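INTERNAL AUDIT FORM
Audit reference: QA-55
Scope: verify that the stored structure record matches its stored sequence.
Auditor: D.O.
Record contents follow.
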Amino acid sequence: ESSLKVTGIDFLKSQNTRQHHTDGYNIKNLVVRRGQPFQVQVSLNRELRAADKLSLRFGIGENPVKNKGSLLSLKPEREDFNGWKISAVKKRGKECLLSVTSSPSAPVGKYNLHVKTGTNIYKPENGVIYLLFNPWCEDDVVYMANEAQRKEYVLNDTGCIYVGSAYSIYDRPWNYGQFEEFVLDACMYLLDKSKLSLTDRRNPANVSRAMSALVNANDDSGVLLGNWSGNYISGTSPMDWIGSVTILQQYYKTKKPVRYGQCWVFAGVLNTVMRCLGVPSRCVSTFNAAHDTEENLRVDVYLNERGEKLDMSFDSVWNFHVWNDVWMKRTDLPEGFDGWQAIDSTPQEQSQGLFQCGPCPVKAVREGDVYLPYDSKFVYAEVNADRVYWIVKKVNGKDKYFKVGTETQDIGKNISTKAVGQNKREDITQEYKYPEGSKEERMSMQRANSFLRPSGMMPRSGYASTVQTLSGNTQPLVLKEPVTKTGLHIEITNTEALHPGNPLEMAITVKTSTPGNWTVDLTGSCQLQYYTGKVQANLGTIKETIQLEGTSEMQIPLKIAPDAYMKTLSSLEDEVLILVTAIAEVKETNDKLTKETSMRFEYPPITVQMPETAKLYNDFTCAFIFKNKLNVTLENCKLLVEGLGIFKMTTFDQGDIMPGRIMKSEIICTPTRLGEKKIVAKLISNQIKGISTEKAITIT
């Protein structure tokens, strides 16, 4: 009697991956999602008989064992094993079609499939099956009911990340590329590197926390090395990336941290990793994000007597900060905290000894439940701190600190993400906080304050340890600035477009709104700063005394000549923002008010010329055109372009582009995938870092 042997196995890849929404992955192996059936066809050396023993064995990890749950032995028509089920769909001659359903809470990762018949074990070629989280499965904790959202947050491999400042938000296109070659393997390598137990791998909260640690290189030689120094000579400047693919491919090849990242790069890569593993994920940008090192909900800003910001605070307010929200049920928390969870891979603060952050329920931030894991105090402070302004004056040769204003509604503005299914900004501030000044907001703040350390109104900086308390005011947290006696108000705007090479023309408008004659001392300054709030150059200051009567206003111009800033602009490797700070003091009432606004430079656009549609594997030409409409030569221009499913990342050296000159580059494209595809282009030069664009084409 011949013993039963397997002669082959067909993973029915095209049928399975279509049903599992995994047909995008550029990989030989079968990729499926948990909790959903997939089929395999087993070929045998003879017909199957009633007495034959046949089992599929799925093993995960180095040496799988049954009692650890890392080896699953599935026999058709038997009761399930660890929540997995298997059944014979049909038996025809020597063929046997089997359906396998993994548990909706199975550990994610790579499983080795062997088929055991009697004492024979068959090991197929490409027998490794990748098992991912499943937002389409109601029993999976990452289940997302809305199809349009699943398309965006799981399957969309391009997007944009919002940057700039609250005054001028703009979008940076980003290629996530979760389906590109080696990206899934890089994510599996990170999962193995995380040393998460099998039980932890079942839970997206543990997996996302581990990934937030592994996307930065701190502690564990993870994917990206952060660098905010302005010197990127030994790597790629953070401004030069246009997507995650190159970064993850390089990391997977070398297993060494890739140089260099800043927050939007960390967030872009973490978004790729989470979507790749099957967890719905989005990049979230917060404008005026507080980095409050002492968890006292206060960030101190120190100004000199000219109104220029000094770099002397431990805390900082970033013009913008980008992190990620991932979608899941939180089975480890009380009811009410399911849905979006914030995670952050930018290395800012250690949490449980590692540079990791989250998952923190977005609802916990809104409700002020800042005792909930993980890192909810830190995230709460990022969007809710107060900004307190101090002037540092020399009195008898010693530094004295004078409080000149508190901004209670300035931090955590315009929280933004890409809208579902369209290229526009969606404002999600209301998911993170109640409306400023509402009853719910007040209750949420009181809740949060009961878990946070209250702070006395003491200035705090590296140099401020010897200061006496000012005005004896040690109440924790002023909920609302008292309305000043004069109704004093400041607005800062630009009066002309802020083009590099032109004078920067801005204005400070001072308003009063109560009866009386008011003498206002106005101090204004203009500086260049990095998005992290670090000052790079002082460009100029003004000091004026103005007279206002009753309800009236006056506009004071602030103008900076090109010579004052162009040299700095050309020497920096990062994009900088223009920071204008104004201090107004009313002589008669001693009212003081401070206001700051960051603005970005405006640039001429890149245009992309190509057909609207193209046929699979048929070449088409794509042209990139840029006209330098500025009054300055752009030196050492590089054009970076990438089109997922069309062409790999390509760099064109363009040399110097003089004012008025037009640059044109062409690339021949061969589409290898169907559907809507995007081409992303970015132009960088010594003077300008931030010109980018994207254009879509439909491949039929």
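Auditor finding: record pair retrieved intact. The domain at 488-600 is CATH 2.60.40.10 (Immunoglobulin-like).
Action required: none
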